[in-house]
């Protein structure tokens, strides 16, 4: 086994677990090369709404031009096997990548959110492998609310309003508005159970994408964070229709729209477009 019972319990109960020294130098270098290509070649889902604001972050998602490269790369990494163990799933598929680049020491925290507000996903067998290429202190790392993958599904954040990170994505009332977690924490540091870890290159944070999570700010001490997120799913992963109110996200979410249109509420999440790894 690549994981301990303690790590499997942590993923299941808390929604996240950090596994240290998960990738070797070669694997890490290959991931970083792919990340750098991604940054230099933005795809159709590159996110520019934070450009010029205090939250400026280069975010890109599921770039079709680099799909083949990641589909091959993930066959050489231990991540699928680790998720197989964390979930207890017989099979594992690779979904796609997302990249986050914070530079210049002045980008504020990425809004708290659940990926399942933006993407049509349900079920326990989903996972993000959060891979960061710099050493990051705890205060600048990804933060996750313990156990929130099993809690309320909130509306998403538009990620477009630096003054209100809870500005709703669907705003039709299907899901409650996101709580203002930073405001709550400023008033009472114990109001939310926040998990985060310092990371060094090679460590991988495995999180369930329904967990409430947000990337902490960078600062003078930690000016750069380059993060590659690789997403996977397993046997008990299902399609869940998103609200229809926001045209960009209506029913299927923005990614793999044609494939997603073939799925109905509650269907097993399966499509030949996703590489099977186990
Ligand atoms: O790294 C970040 O700032 C955010 C990561 C994230 O949202 C994700 O892994 O889905």
TrEMBL record:
<dbReference type="GO" id="GO:0005506">
    <property type="term" value="F:iron ion binding"/>
</dbReference>
<dbReference type="GO" id="GO:0016706">
    <property type="term" value="F:2-oxoglutarate-dependent dioxygenase activity"/>
</dbReference>
<keyword id="KW-0560">Oxidoreductase</keyword>
<dbReference type="InterPro" id="IPR008775">
    <property type="entry name" value="Phytyl_CoA_dOase-like"/>
</dbReference>
<dbReference type="Pfam" id="PF05721">
    <property type="entry name" value="PhyH"/>
</dbReference>
<keyword id="KW-0223">Dioxygenase</keyword>
<protein>
    <submittedName>
        <fullName>Phytanoyl-CoA dioxygenase</fullName>
    </submittedName>
</protein>
